[in-house]
Design goal:
With about 160 residues, the chain is mainly alpha-helical. It has six helices and two strands. It has a domain of about 110 residues. A hairpin with a 5-residue loop joins strand 1 and strand 2.
Length: about 160
């Protein structure tokens, strides 16, 4: 089953009643967003990203504040590492225990991977990409009726 589209973006096949029901569902899970202010420990670049995302992502609320802060922090670190290592290769020359020259992985590469992975996890959690938003808005499915044969088997056991 394909995940449903957010009601604001879907203009095709929903009837008026279905659209209203969907909008009620989306509104029922919202909390206020009056405390979405970037903390002082973020850099200016991270604060700008925080404010842009909080403004553009209307579904973000106060409960998402910590995730949004962490996302912006990691994003800023990734940007800094990319700037720092723009002209540095992934492998560097180092000296081994016997004094020989050996290739060593750039230590910033590991940090970059860790921050990028954390960003991906948070993105999925708060719906930064379009596919993440669709996954977050899965409607609740009603409970399926119990299989009568399974109920009969349970009674016999």
């Amino acid at each position: 089953m394909r995940p449903p589209v957010i009601s604001v973006l879907n203009g095709s096949h929903w009837s008026k009643e279905e659209r209203e029901e969907r909008q009620k569902l989306e509104e029922s899970i919202r909390v206020d967003s009056d405390r979405l202010v970037p903390p002082d420990f973020l850099t200016d670049r991270a604060k700008q990203l925080y404010e842009r995302l909080a403004w553009e992502m209307h579904w973000i609320d106060n409960l998402d504040h910590a995730d949004l802060v962490m996302y912006c922090y990691c994003w800023d670190k990734v940007q800094s590492l990319m700037e720092k290592n723009r002209d540095v290769p992934d492998t560097l020359q180092g000296t081994g225990s016997s004094g020989q020259t050996v290739l060593v992985q750039n230590p910033d590469r590991f940090a970059f991977k860790q921050y990028a992975e954390e960003m991906r996890k948070i993105s999925g959690k708060i719906g930064i990409s379009h596919t993440d938003r669709l996954r977050l808005l899965q409607p609740e499915t009603p409970d399926k009726p119990e299989n009568k044969f399974a109920a009969l088997k349970r009674k016999r056991a």
